[in-house]
């Protein structure tokens, strides 16, 4: 009996699986809008920064908007927020000095948020900046937001207990990366850090030792969220943030759920970008990307007005993209997250080898390994196309499938033995296998060495790490070359560990260019960064640009107003609404 | 005085009490227990079918390079031009064709058939080698502990308990990277055989306790039997006692425990690869394939089907054969 049952179970398994496999796949190319260029300006006209934000077509008030995500947002303390999920949520509960007007298609305009305009460069040398605080913005208890509360917010970001957030303002104000020792917040709770002053209740003044032309961008990060000092609960603020935005946190269950409901003291006329359509937002944590996508596709009950925060998993993409009925419920958009095969320039010192690496990679095959054009699009530049002023070029044209012959020619008969360090995650192992195949085809000998997934980033950030090649990615904090090229390729910043310059690239001429461009006004910088991008690749080839991530999202039939942020590549919630 | 049950011919009636036993041998001649077991096994259809399947699997595994030669495709060859824009195989049932018998893997576009053949080789080699090692360690320690008793028994029992208390997963997670670093540094090529070897050692270190306990119990039971006492009274040395008197009577439990550990290690290897600690991506392995295929249940079910069915058939065959072997060797225990 036992055997017959086993045979029956086996037979049924075979039958079910075989039946479901019975349609032929004939291909068909998915389309992604990849040619778009980011345009971005800093809005100097105060009218651009004036509220209210234009109504979203078809939006109405009411309903509960749910967001499904596998991993929780660690906390919602604005000064400590740096994850994409956090950066997209904090705008609902906190306002910042400046913010981005974004149409989700790469057209960006930096406008004043708490400030009336995106800042005034007082002496036209980027060293002294003034922001005039908007009238009529209130906290959730009705108190007005003044320059003092904004200053206090920036001051508390110096607290080493509240680490984790962006550190631009802190480092710029005291002009050293060790900002928490240069100015001790805990000993000076009633004062402001050096360089930051509030001449009156409606003026905030920054004074820097060096030109900081990117300040209007930097203050769009939630470091500048205001907080009255009597409401500062220290490390506990993340569980119960004090709101200045259109929503306030009414329930916080760590790792399970965050519920945000309307803040009645928020005034739409003071806000250039946000809306207050749904009655509440609910973050629901736990379902895997697979489960969340399937739930949202099934479109039942509360999931009808839900968004699956994580991108559609690569294995499900063919199904979602192939279903015409889902087209209206999906969003496909390239993101500013750029991925490179980083070459350890401290080890691979021969330019011709680095150039050969650039010729050898089959980007089209790599995109297939990643899951197709709904996951990644090939890239040949250092900066992603979503950067303001980006220009497409290909310094080492190798066609979509790579040019092994050209690579061999550059190698001139030598057979470099390189070690590729790869995280031991399933996906990165496959990508590494693919790259090894590409490179060995072109005359390299590649050894793949595994690095534990959770330790990989720390390991490659150590100068003197033992690998020649590794995969690296970079998502800038604002779409300007200033937050990409000097951060990743300024050789003077290389230290023992914690390097963002994973390529350990150091060239005095390029370093001097960084210094020169950084002192230009932001509007003049963008073109120069694009030129420098091309120059670095042509003269030095410090990395192999591979691809930019593509956001592919699915949401319920009643969820509306979602677009992919052109700045962070994650779903923006400011226009979200529940359709009737 | 009783004879050792394995010492010589015994009347057939003694051994054939079980339901799975063969028809009574009409010629009436006495058979050795080994011959009796063989007769029972031969009459058991499940045993024959699963045995034949096992032989087939073994042959395929052994002949993998030959199959590669005739098939013309290696386990690392990629056919990405036969994938669509999503990285899924073109054509019917995951790209099944005359050229690719079981279709192609999504993403990397490697041939599933030849990877299964090599995966079978890896799986069977790991499982058989680990099972042999486990049995040897288990039998040696179990027999010594059971027969000699005293402080040796105490020590072996203590080590057994200690091993049972060690967390398998934690060791399996931590040990391979440490050993790799120790032997190959951070930049040297790590041969695939090293990963396989480490896996076998881990399985052996954790797997021997069951066999050892079983054998120790059996030996203690046998130790008090008359034929052992007789042999001892006749002045037999420990060597003779162990190899002529005890071990022949332990053949059945040893074989059975061996046959049950093999499928356990096949699935064990798959499970470890499943959680990402088994073998590396470059070594074809069932576990890794099944792990990667699971996400494709909705979009490329054929990729789940082929490795799934093969490992299912392999484990089923080994298990059924193990059952049949036990029934044949020890009819009284047949269920």
Automatic annotation (TrEMBL), chain A:
Keywords for this protein: Signal
InterPro entries registered for this protein in UniProt: Peptide/Ni-bd, SBP_5, SBP_5_dom
Span of the signal peptide: 1-23
Domain Solute-binding protein family, first and last residues per copy: 110-491
Tagged with keyword Signal: yes
Domain of life: Bacteria
Record CDD domains: PBP2_clavulanate_OppA2
PANTHER family in UniProt: ABC TRANSPORTER SUBSTRATE-BINDING PROTEIN (PTHR30290:SF83), PERIPLASMIC BINDING COMPONENT OF ABC TRANSPORTER (PTHR30290)
Full protein name: ABC transporter
From TrEMBL, chain B:
Coiled coil feature spans: none
Domain of life: Bacteria
Region of interest called Disordered, as start-end residue ranges on this chain: 1-31
Keywords annotated in UniProt: Cell membrane, Membrane, Transmembrane, Transmembrane helix, Transport
Keyword Membrane: yes
Listed name of the protein: Peptide ABC transporter permease
Domain ABC transmembrane type-1: 120-322
Family: Belongs to the binding-protein-dependent transport system permease family.
Annotated membrane topology: Multi-pass membrane protein
Main location: membrane
Subcellular location(s) per record: Cell membrane
SUPFAM superfamilies on file: MetI-like
Transmembrane annotation, as ranges: 47-67, 124-149, 155-178, 190-209, 302-322
InterPro entries: BP-dependent_transpt_permease, MetI-like, MetI-like_sf, OppC_N
């Amino acid at each position: 009996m036992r055997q017959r049952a086993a045979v029956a179970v086996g037979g049924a398994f075979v039958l079910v699986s075989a039946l479901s496999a019975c349609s032929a796949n004939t291909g068909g190319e998915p389309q992604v809008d990849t040619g778009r260029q980011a345009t971005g300006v800093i809005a100097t006209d105060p009218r651009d920064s004036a509220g209210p934000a234009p109504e979203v077509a078809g939006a109405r008030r009411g309903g509960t908007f749910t967001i499904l995500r596998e991993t929780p947002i660690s906390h919602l303390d604005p000064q400590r927020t740096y994850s994409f999920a956090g950066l997209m949520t904090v705008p609902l509960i906190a306002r910042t000095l400046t913010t981005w007007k974004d149409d989700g298609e790469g057209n960006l305009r930096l406008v004043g948020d708490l400030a009336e305009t995106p800042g005034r460069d007082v002496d036209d040398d980027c060293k002294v900046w003034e922001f005039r605080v908007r009238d009529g913005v209130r906290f959730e208890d009705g108190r007005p937001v003044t320059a003092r509360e904004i200053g206090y917010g920036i001051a508390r970001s110096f607290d080493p207990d509240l680490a984790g957030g962006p550190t631009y303002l802190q480092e710029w104000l005291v002009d050293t990366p060790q900002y928490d020792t240069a100015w001790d917040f805990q000993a000076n709770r009633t004062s402001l850090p050096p360089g930051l002053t509030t001449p009156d209740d409606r003026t905030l003044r920054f004074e820097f030792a060096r030109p900081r032309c990117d300040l209007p961008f930097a203050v769009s990060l939630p470091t500048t969220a205001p907080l009255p000092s009597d409401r500062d609960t220290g490390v506990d603020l993340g569980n119960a943030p004090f709101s200045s935005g259109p929503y306030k946190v009414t329930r916080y269950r760590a790792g399970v759920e965050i519920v945000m409901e309307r803040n009645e003291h928020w005034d739409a006329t003071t806000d250039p970008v946000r809306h207050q359509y749904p009655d509440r937002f609910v973050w629901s944590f736990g379902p895997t990307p697979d489960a969340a996508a399937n739930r949202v596709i099934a479109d039942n009950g509360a999931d009808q007005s839900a968004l699956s925060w994580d991108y559609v998993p690569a294995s499900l993409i063919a199904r979602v993209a192939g279903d015409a009925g889902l087209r209206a419920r999906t969003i496909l958009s390239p993101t500013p997250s750029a991925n490179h095969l980083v070459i350890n320039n401290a080890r691979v010192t021969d330019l011709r080898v680095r150039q050969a690496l650039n010729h050898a990679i089959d980007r089209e095959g790599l995109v297939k390994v990643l899951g197709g054009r709904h996951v990644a699009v090939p890239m040949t530049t250092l900066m992603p196309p979503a950067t303001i002023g980006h220009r497409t070029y290909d310094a080492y044209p190798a066609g979509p499938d790579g040019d092994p012959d050209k690579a061999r020619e550059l190698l001139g008969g030598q057979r470099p033995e390189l070690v590729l360090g790869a995280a031991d995650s399933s996906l990165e192992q496959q990508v590494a296998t693919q790259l090894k195949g590409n490179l060995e085809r072109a005359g390299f000998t590649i050894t793949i060495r595994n690095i534990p997934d959770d330790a990989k980033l720390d390991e490659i950030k150590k100068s003197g790490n033992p690998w020649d090649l590794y995969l690296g990615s970079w998502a800038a904090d604002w779409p300007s070359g200033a937050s990409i090229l000097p951060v990743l390729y300024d050789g003077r910043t290389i230290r023992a560990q914690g390097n963002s310059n994973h390529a350990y690239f150091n060239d005095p001429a390029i370093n001097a260019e960084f210094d020169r461009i950084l002192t230009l006004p932001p509007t003049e910088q963008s073109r120069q960064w694009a030129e420098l991008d091309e120059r670095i690749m042509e003269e030095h080839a410090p990395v192999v640009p591979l691809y930019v991530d593509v956001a592919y999202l699915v949401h319920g039939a009643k969820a509306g107003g979602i677009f992919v942020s052109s700045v962070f590549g994650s779903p923006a919630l400011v226009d979200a609404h529940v359709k009737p | 005085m009783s004879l050792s049950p394995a010492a010589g011919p015994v009347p057939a009636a003694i051994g054939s009490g079980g339901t799975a036993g063969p028809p009574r041998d009409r010629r009436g001649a006495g058979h050795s227990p080994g011959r009796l077991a063989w007769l029972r096994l031969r009459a058991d259809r499940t045993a024959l079918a699963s045995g034949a399947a096992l032989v087939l699997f073994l042959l395929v595994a052994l002949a993998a390079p030959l199959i590669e030669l005739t098939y013309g495709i290696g386990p690392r060859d990629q056919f990405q031009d036969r994938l669509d824009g999503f990285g899924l195989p073109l054509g019917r049932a995951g790209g099944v064709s005359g050229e690719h018998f079981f279709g192609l893997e999504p993403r990397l576009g490697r041939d599933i058939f030849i990877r299964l053949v090599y995966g079978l080789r890896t799986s069977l080699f790991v499982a058989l080698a680990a099972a042999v090692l486990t049995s040897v360690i288990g039998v040696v320690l179990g027999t010594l502990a059971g027969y000699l008793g005293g402080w040796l028994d105490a020590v072996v029992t203590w080590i057994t308990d200690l091993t049972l208390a060690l967390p398998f997963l934690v060791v399996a997670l931590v040990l391979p990277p440490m050993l790799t670093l120790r032997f190959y540094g951070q930049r040297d090529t790590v041969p695939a055989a090293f990963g396989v070897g480490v896996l076998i050692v881990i399985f052996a270190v954790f797997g021997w306790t069951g066999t050892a306990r079983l054998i120790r119990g059996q030996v203690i039971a046998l130790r008090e039997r008359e034929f052992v006492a007789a042999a001892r009274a006749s002045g037999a040395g420990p060597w003779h006692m162990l190899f002529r008197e005890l071990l022949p009577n332990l053949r059945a439990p040893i074989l059975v425990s061996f046959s049950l550990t093999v499928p356990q290690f096949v699935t064990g290897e798959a499970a470890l690869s499943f959680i990402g600690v088994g073998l590396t991506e470059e070594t074809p392995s069932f576990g890794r394939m099944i792990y990667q295929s699971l996400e494709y249940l909705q979009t490329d079910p054929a990729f789940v089907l082929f490795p799934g069915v093969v490992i299912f058939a392999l484990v089923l065959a080994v298990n059924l054969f193990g059952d049949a072997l036990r029934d044949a060797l020890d009819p009284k225990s047949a269920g």
